[in-house]
């Protein structure tokens, strides 16, 4: 239980920054890149983008909690894609707050993922995964007897 309380702020910070990064980039794409498309199609594209992004984020965070350290790269690619998508929107003279927000949240997310606290959390979760594996082996041996 101590592990959950200890790392909750950094874990939730990563989740919330990814949610805000994705939603702000979807707004930028819908309002500036897909401006020529009808509103109905644009809304449908935005909805499906949100669904796909939420599934990817959920899966990567579940795998990180399960002790799979390499799944953090899904988050890194996600934040990088948000940045690469939002940066060229300056051409369309977007609203300054929306543009700043679409750059701020991915950068904050990358900062959180690279923080000492997040790396420490991932290390502890990997250690916990190996402990669970050893306990399962011992339980299997005891069941076979």
Automatic annotation (TrEMBL):
Does the entry feature the keyword Transmembrane helix, yes or no? yes
Q: Which residues cross the membrane?
A: 12-33, 45-64, 71-90, 96-114
Domain of life (superkingdom):
Bacteria
What keywords is this UniProt entry annotated with? Membrane, Transmembrane, Transmembrane helix
Q: Any idea what this protein is called? A: Uncharacterized protein
